[in-house]
Amino acid sequence: MRSSSPFPGQTDNIFRDKFCKWPKLMRYLVFISLLPPAFLVAIVHADTVSFNEVLIPSIAASALNILLFFWGIVLKVKARKYWYRNYHIGKTMLVALLPVIASSYMLLEQHEPKTAANHLAPRSVQLSVN
Predict the structure, then answer these.
(1) What is the top-level taxon of the source organism (predicted)?
(2) Per the domain annotation, does 117 fall within a domain?
(3) Confidence class of residue 38 from pLDDT cuts 50, 70 and 90?
(4) Please, which contacts does 40-49 make with residues 24 or more away whose CB atoms are closer than 8 Å?
(5) Within a domain: residue 37?
(6) Helix 21-33 and helix 55-82: axis angle, to 10°?
């Protein structure tokens, strides 16, 4: 499928989009980019590693997803401008923001391990002798 042109007989093809390959590629990249943040959130909530150890990989995964989001915006604009069509990738762009939201949640929460050693409150026991 060649790019649509408003004038018949126009010979310059600015940018070809065969079989909607750009939105498909974006969808695949977004779904692949969901795996590392999901893994990081799972291991943090399972208390296998500390939050500080996964902070930098989490920020890197979020940066990748922000780039994918901006690429989606550029793709929507170019699709409208060059091919006179609308790619319905709004939901994919929303899914690309989910790891960013998850990373910000982990950053704001500052997850602490669930151990009894953190709760050092003084306790007293009363005994009665009959």
Answers:
(1) Bacteria
(2) no
(3) confident
(4) 40/106, 41/102, 41/106, 44/106, 44/111, 45/111, 47/113, 47/114
(5) yes
(6) 170
The H-assigned helical ranges of 18-117 are 21-33, 35-45, 55-82, 90-109
Query: What pLDDT is attached to residue 15?
Result: 55
Using 50, 70 and 90 to split pLDDT, how confident is the model at 67?
very high
Highest mean pLDDT among 8-12, 93-97, 124-128: 93-97
d(CA 39, CA 96): 16
Q: Work out the angle at residue 82's Cα, subtended by the Cα atoms of residues 77 and 20, and round it to the nearest 5 degrees.
A: 80
Q: Which of 47, 43, 21 is nearest to 115 (CA)?
A: 47
The count of domains in the chain is: 1
Return the structure tokens found at 22: 């750009």
Domain limits for position 74: 12-111
